[in-house]
Every structure is written in C-alpha cells, then in structure tokens.
Design brief:
This protein is 49% helix and 20% strand. With 371 residues, the chain is of the alpha+beta class. A three-stranded antiparallel β-sheet has the order 1-3-2. Strands 4-6-5 form a three-stranded antiparallel β-sheet. A three-stranded antiparallel β-sheet has the order 7-9-8, with helices on one face. Strand 5 and strand 6 form a beta hairpin. Helix 4 (116-155) packs antiparallel against helix 6 (167-198). The N and C termini lie far apart (71 Å).
C-alpha cells in the first residue's frame, strides 16, 4: 500500500491553454510521470514509470440536450480512428474533455487531429462551449441586476427598517455582478484562445511561443504618431507586426526591409471620400462594425499608395505597413497626433460606459425619490 502511494502523486495546477497543458504533460512524461487521472480540470494524478518521450492531445465529446444519431456515434468512430493511429485514451474530466497519449514515433502520426478540417472542427467545439458559458453568466448577471432594480423600487414604499434589512442583498448583487461579469469575459476570451491555438499544428504553436521568433509587447499608445514611431522602432529591430489589441502588440521576427506603418479608420476614410465629393459610409443598422464597406475602401486606397495590410483592430481600425520611401501618405499628417480613443475603448468599453451612465441615472432618480 505504501509502495503504491510512492508511485503516484497529485499536482494542483490551472491551465488556460490546452497547448501549454499538453507541453507540460509531455515534460512530466519525460521525467517519468505519466497522467492517469484528472479531476475538476486542475487536479492531475500521475503514476511513476520509466521516462519516455510521450505525446498528449485533447478533444471533447459532450452531447447537446437533443443529440442526433451522428452526434451519438461520433465518439465511437473517433476512438476507433485514434486507436488506429496509435493514440490511447488516458482519462477525461467533468467537462468531457478527453485526454489521449501515445509514445513518440519518428515517422508516426504525431497529431491527434492531423488535418486542417479536423483541427478547425475541434477548435470550434471548444470555442462554442466556452462562449455558451459566457452567455449564461451574462444572462444571470442581467437577471440579478433586473431583480435588484425592481426590489429597489419596491422598497421605496416600505419603511426604513425594511430597507435597512435588505441592504445585504445590495452587497450580494454588487459582488455577484462583478464576479459574473468577470467570469463571462474570462470564458469568452478562453473560447477565442482555444479556437486560435487548437487550429494550429503542434509545430505552428511551438513556433508562435518561441521568444526567438515571436514576442508580445504590452503598451498603451494614445496617438497615431506614437503608434507609428513605436512600430517603426520595432521594425528597425527586425520585428514585424502581425496582430494587435488595444494594449497588446504581437510581432514576428523578420529580416526584411525597413518598414513604416500607418493607421486608417472609418472616420478617415469618410474624410477622404468627402474630399472627392463622394458619399460617406453610414449604416444605421451596423452597430458593431460588421459591414465591410469602409474597410474595403480603405484597403483599395492603401494599396493604391503602396501600403499592404498588416492587421485590423476589432472592425474599428486597420494598420498598414510599407517599405520606407516606397509608399505615399494615406492621410493628412495633421491626423497623426489625433487620439486613438476609438481604438482603445472598443465595443466592450462602450457597453460599460453606456451601462455606467444608465446605472448612474437610475441611481440618481432613486436617490431623489428616496425620502
């Protein structure tokens, strides 16, 4: 009994990336510890053995509420195919994430999902389950907030002792809304990350996290001129922009020509169209920037001046790159110092500001009505 305990151990660890989790499991196997069980997605049980070069991978097989025959049989068919390629099921967690392992083979199939279509399908499954969770969190947060507003209005007609006795609920709502919003955002972002990472091959992901070829810089830049200077400095050091968020910049190592950058937006596109006596882009039904009309115009204008597409930021702005001395200005230089507020605030930021204003108005009205 004691010998059995010595040959097993449990490790508590939380991962937000299946690729990092897989790499860690393979590292553990290289030290002679092999996964045997996983509880709650974070308690890993290992069994001791001879160190081996192992491969691990993951897929999920959770049924919807009303499964069809194809969905019921998919797991069986997948397991048969996986076994033919040498993969064996190790364990699964409470979310029906199944872990597979096989010993590394020099010329073998080292990917559980070894073609683009199967990787994309798996990535969509993980993304969908996390986004469903995010929507549930958001729904119950809104329901709780609605009940809180109704209760607050109801208490206006009650005596002071009753109001004081319900103060605990206000604190409950405040904490619940904060935690619920946090969970919703976290689940949504993890779904996006899962889709991106699980769509890659093993080699593509390893390259993407290699500090010699890729890096991420966290930086708040408020003006277009500041953005251009920052990106140009990175380009001079051999780093080319591949992706951007409001405060994070993703770069890839390159030995190409010295690059410069410029940023375009719907506002600037419409200014150019006005100068050419053309109609501006305005779609009252396009609330979150899904209509691509202005982006298409921006790409055409940029390519005519020698620029090439670098990346876009949430349908609100586009960053272009070009070789210094071979491109023409896309916009008037006076807009280089304009604030990037539209790029920094973003869709979620706008929602938060709107919710804050509505909450402030409701709170003010209730405060005035309360004796």
């Amino acid at each position: 009994m004691n010998q059995s305990r010595c040959c097993n151990k449990r490790i508590f660890r939380i991962f937000f990336s299946f690729q990092k989790e897989r790499a860690w499991l393979e590292e553990m196997a290289g030290r002679g510890w092999f996964l045997s069980n996983l509880t709650l997605g974070m308690i890993f049980t290992f069994v001791k053995g001879e160190p081996k070069k192992m491969l691990y991978d993951v897929d999920r097989f959770s049924l919807p509420k009303k499964p069809g025959l194809e969905e019921i049989r998919r797991k069986e068919l997948f397991f048969e195919l996986a076994q033919e390629m040498g993969w064996q099921e190790v364990t699964h967690d409470e979310s029906m994430n199944y872990y597979f392992a096989k010993e590394y083979e020099e010329d073998g199939v080292n990917e559980l999902c070894n073609d683009e279509d199967s990787r994309r399908y798996r990535a969509q499954k993980f993304k969908e389950i996390y986004h469903i969770s995010a929507k549930r969190y958001a729904f119950w947060v809104m329901m709780t907030a609605a009940v809180s507003i109704w209760l607050k209005l109801f208490l206006l007609s009650c005596d002071m002792s009753t109001r004081l006795s319900m103060q605990w609920y206000e604190w409950f709502v405040l904490i619940y809304v904060c935690l619920g919003n946090g969970q919703a955002v976290a689940a949504w972002r993890r779904g996006v990350r899962c889709e991106r990472e699980l769509s890659m091959t093993r080699q593509e992901w390893e390259d993407s996290v290699n500090p010699a070829t890729h890096k991420v810089v966290r930086k708040l830049i408020l003006t277009n001129r500041g953005l251009n200077r920052f990106l140009s400095r990175q380009a001079a050091e051999g780093w080319i922009l591949t992706e951007v968020t409001p405060v994070r910049y993703f770069f890839e190592k390159s030995c190409g020509e010295k690059m410069i950058y410029t940023m375009d937006s719907k506002y600037l596109v419409n200014r150019r169209r006005k100068a050419r006596d053309q109609s501006i882009f305005s779609d009252g039904k396009d609330w979150v920037g899904m209509n691509s009309d202005w982006e298409l115009q921006s790409v055409h204008d940029a390519e005519e001046r020698g620029w090439s597409f670098a990346c876009a930021l949430e349908n609100r702005s586009i960053i272009y790159k070009g070789e210094e001395g071979k491109v023409q200005p896309l916009n008037d230089g006076r807009y280089d110092n304009s604030l990037r507020s539209i790029s920094i605030v973003g869709q979620y930021g706008a929602y938060m500001i709107l919710c804050g204003l509505i909450g402030g108005i409701v709170g003010f009205v209730i405060g005035v009505l309360t004796p």
